[in-house]
Design goal:
Protocatechuate 3,4-Dioxygenase, subunit A; mainly beta; 9 strands; 5-stranded mixed β-sheet
Amino acid sequence: MSSSRRDLLAALLAAPLAGGLAGPARAQGGLAPTPACDDGDAPTPAQTEGPYFTPDSPEKRDFAADDPGGVPLALAGFALDADCRPLPGALIELWHCDAAGVYDNAGFRLRGHQFTDAEGRWRFDTIVPGVYPGRTRHFHLKAQPRGGRLLTTQLYFPGEAGNLRDRIFDDRLLLDLFRVDGGGRLARYDLVLA
Protein backbone atom coordinates (compact mmCIF):
# COMPACT_ATOMS: atom_id res chain seq x y z
CA MET A 1 0.00 0.00 0.00
CA SER A 2 1.35 3.44 -0.82
CA SER A 3 2.46 5.70 1.99
CA SER A 4 0.06 8.41 0.76
CA ARG A 5 -2.94 6.17 1.40
CA ARG A 6 -1.57 5.20 4.81
CA ASP A 7 -0.98 8.82 5.74
CA LEU A 8 -4.44 9.86 4.61
CA LEU A 9 -6.12 7.18 6.63
CA ALA A 10 -4.04 7.85 9.73
CA ALA A 11 -6.43 10.63 10.67
CA LEU A 12 -9.39 8.25 10.53
CA LEU A 13 -7.54 5.54 12.42
CA ALA A 14 -6.59 8.10 15.04
CA ALA A 15 -10.27 8.41 15.94
CA PRO A 16 -11.05 6.14 18.88
CA LEU A 17 -12.00 2.63 17.89
CA ALA A 18 -14.54 0.65 19.84
CA GLY A 19 -12.53 -0.49 22.84
CA GLY A 20 -10.60 2.74 23.29
CA LEU A 21 -7.48 2.48 21.13
CA ALA A 22 -6.26 5.72 19.66
CA GLY A 23 -4.29 5.21 16.51
CA PRO A 24 -0.89 6.25 15.24
CA ALA A 25 -1.58 9.97 15.48
CA ARG A 26 -0.62 9.51 19.13
CA ALA A 27 2.50 7.55 18.21
CA GLN A 28 5.84 9.00 19.21
CA GLY A 29 7.19 11.19 16.45
CA GLY A 30 3.78 11.84 14.87
CA LEU A 31 2.92 11.30 11.24
CA ALA A 32 3.64 13.15 8.04
CA PRO A 33 0.97 15.55 6.75
CA THR A 34 -1.87 13.87 4.89
CA PRO A 35 -1.64 14.11 1.08
CA ALA A 36 -4.59 13.63 -1.27
CA CYS A 37 -5.81 10.08 -1.76
CA ASP A 38 -6.43 9.82 -5.47
CA ASP A 39 -3.83 7.43 -6.77
CA GLY A 40 -5.57 4.08 -6.13
CA ASP A 41 -3.67 1.05 -4.97
CA ALA A 42 -3.24 -2.49 -6.12
CA PRO A 43 -5.11 -5.03 -4.01
CA THR A 44 -3.32 -6.49 -1.00
CA PRO A 45 -1.30 -9.53 -2.17
CA ALA A 46 -2.74 -12.95 -1.41
CA GLN A 47 -0.75 -15.64 0.37
CA THR A 48 -1.33 -19.18 1.56
CA GLU A 49 -3.49 -19.77 4.63
CA GLY A 50 -0.98 -22.39 5.79
CA PRO A 51 -1.77 -25.63 7.59
CA TYR A 52 -3.14 -24.10 10.81
CA PHE A 53 -6.39 -22.44 9.72
CA THR A 54 -9.52 -23.47 11.66
CA PRO A 55 -12.94 -22.46 10.23
CA ASP A 56 -15.84 -21.09 12.28
CA SER A 57 -13.76 -18.92 14.61
CA PRO A 58 -15.63 -16.91 17.25
CA GLU A 59 -16.32 -13.21 16.86
CA LYS A 60 -13.81 -11.59 19.22
CA ARG A 61 -11.39 -8.72 19.45
CA ASP A 62 -9.37 -9.59 22.58
CA PHE A 63 -6.74 -12.22 21.84
CA ALA A 64 -4.30 -10.97 24.52
CA ALA A 65 -6.17 -12.85 27.25
CA ASP A 66 -5.41 -16.07 25.33
CA ASP A 67 -1.67 -15.70 26.04
CA PRO A 68 -1.22 -13.38 29.05
CA GLY A 69 2.55 -13.91 29.06
CA GLY A 70 2.94 -12.53 25.53
CA VAL A 71 4.00 -9.01 24.59
CA PRO A 72 0.75 -7.02 24.08
CA LEU A 73 0.14 -5.52 20.66
CA ALA A 74 -2.86 -3.83 19.05
CA LEU A 75 -3.17 -4.87 15.40
CA ALA A 76 -5.34 -2.41 13.47
CA GLY A 77 -6.09 -0.94 10.08
CA PHE A 78 -8.72 -0.18 7.50
CA ALA A 79 -10.43 -2.30 4.87
CA LEU A 80 -10.61 -0.24 1.65
CA ASP A 81 -11.52 -0.64 -1.96
CA ALA A 82 -9.05 0.29 -4.71
CA ASP A 83 -10.46 3.83 -4.80
CA CYS A 84 -9.60 4.43 -1.13
CA ARG A 85 -13.20 4.11 0.04
CA PRO A 86 -13.77 2.39 3.40
CA LEU A 87 -15.52 -0.96 3.39
CA PRO A 88 -17.93 -1.12 6.33
CA GLY A 89 -19.06 -4.55 7.48
CA ALA A 90 -16.09 -6.39 5.91
CA LEU A 91 -15.13 -9.67 7.58
CA ILE A 92 -11.63 -9.68 9.08
CA GLU A 93 -10.39 -13.01 10.48
CA LEU A 94 -7.09 -13.41 12.32
CA TRP A 95 -5.11 -16.35 13.64
CA HIS A 96 -1.53 -16.76 14.80
CA CYS A 97 0.78 -18.74 17.04
CA ASP A 98 1.40 -17.94 20.69
CA ALA A 99 4.54 -16.31 22.09
CA ALA A 100 6.29 -19.70 22.09
CA GLY A 101 5.53 -20.31 18.39
CA VAL A 102 2.74 -22.85 18.96
CA TYR A 103 -0.70 -22.80 17.29
CA ASP A 104 -3.83 -23.94 19.11
CA ASN A 105 -5.19 -26.61 16.76
CA ALA A 106 -7.82 -27.92 19.18
CA GLY A 107 -9.65 -24.68 20.04
CA PHE A 108 -9.73 -20.98 19.33
CA ARG A 109 -6.85 -19.49 21.32
CA LEU A 110 -5.45 -16.59 19.28
CA ARG A 111 -8.16 -17.07 16.66
CA GLY A 112 -11.21 -15.01 15.88
CA HIS A 113 -12.97 -12.63 13.55
CA GLN A 114 -14.78 -9.31 13.56
CA PHE A 115 -16.45 -6.93 11.12
CA THR A 116 -15.19 -3.48 10.18
CA ASP A 117 -17.03 -0.46 11.56
CA ALA A 118 -18.80 2.21 9.49
CA GLU A 119 -15.41 3.79 8.63
CA GLY A 120 -13.87 0.47 7.54
CA ARG A 121 -11.74 0.20 10.71
CA TRP A 122 -10.75 -3.07 12.36
CA ARG A 123 -8.62 -3.89 15.42
CA PHE A 124 -7.49 -6.89 17.45
CA ASP A 125 -5.88 -6.65 20.88
CA THR A 126 -3.37 -9.47 20.72
CA ILE A 127 0.27 -10.33 21.34
CA VAL A 128 3.44 -10.42 19.28
CA PRO A 129 3.45 -13.93 17.78
CA GLY A 130 6.45 -16.16 18.38
CA VAL A 131 8.71 -17.68 15.76
CA TYR A 132 8.78 -21.34 14.82
CA PRO A 133 11.18 -23.32 12.56
CA GLY A 134 11.02 -22.40 8.89
CA ARG A 135 8.98 -19.19 9.25
CA THR A 136 9.52 -15.59 10.21
CA ARG A 137 7.20 -13.79 12.65
CA HIS A 138 3.76 -13.26 11.04
CA PHE A 139 -0.01 -13.03 11.38
CA HIS A 140 -2.51 -14.93 9.19
CA LEU A 141 -5.50 -12.96 8.01
CA LYS A 142 -8.60 -13.38 5.85
CA ALA A 143 -10.64 -10.40 4.70
CA GLN A 144 -13.83 -10.23 2.70
CA PRO A 145 -16.00 -7.23 1.85
CA ARG A 146 -19.75 -7.78 1.90
CA GLY A 147 -20.60 -9.66 -1.30
CA GLY A 148 -16.94 -9.58 -2.41
CA ARG A 149 -14.05 -11.96 -2.91
CA LEU A 150 -12.20 -13.50 0.02
CA LEU A 151 -8.56 -12.49 0.47
CA THR A 152 -6.23 -14.77 2.42
CA THR A 153 -2.85 -13.29 3.29
CA GLN A 154 -0.15 -12.93 5.92
CA LEU A 155 1.30 -9.83 7.59
CA TYR A 156 4.96 -9.50 8.56
CA PHE A 157 7.09 -7.58 11.04
CA PRO A 158 9.79 -5.24 9.72
CA GLY A 159 13.39 -5.83 10.76
CA GLU A 160 13.00 -9.54 11.51
CA ALA A 161 16.13 -11.59 10.79
CA GLY A 162 13.95 -14.41 9.45
CA ASN A 163 12.28 -12.29 6.76
CA LEU A 164 14.98 -12.92 4.17
CA ARG A 165 15.07 -16.66 4.90
CA ASP A 166 11.29 -17.14 4.75
CA ARG A 167 10.38 -18.48 1.29
CA ILE A 168 6.99 -16.73 1.15
CA PHE A 169 7.87 -13.42 2.86
CA ASP A 170 6.64 -10.43 0.83
CA ASP A 171 7.75 -6.92 1.80
CA ARG A 172 4.46 -5.51 0.46
CA LEU A 173 2.87 -7.13 3.52
CA LEU A 174 5.04 -5.43 6.15
CA LEU A 175 3.24 -3.93 9.12
CA ASP A 176 3.80 -0.35 10.23
CA LEU A 177 4.83 -0.44 13.90
CA PHE A 178 4.23 2.38 16.38
CA ARG A 179 4.73 3.05 20.06
CA VAL A 180 1.68 4.77 21.53
CA ASP A 181 1.25 6.82 24.68
CA GLY A 182 1.72 4.77 27.82
CA GLY A 183 4.25 2.40 26.22
CA GLY A 184 1.75 0.39 24.20
CA ARG A 185 2.47 -1.04 20.78
CA LEU A 186 0.40 -0.71 17.62
CA ALA A 187 0.89 -2.61 14.37
CA ARG A 188 -1.03 -1.27 11.41
CA TYR A 189 -1.89 -2.52 7.96
CA ASP A 190 -4.57 -1.17 5.64
CA LEU A 191 -6.11 -3.87 3.46
CA VAL A 192 -7.06 -3.03 -0.13
CA LEU A 193 -9.70 -5.55 -1.20
CA ALA A 194 -10.65 -6.30 -4.80
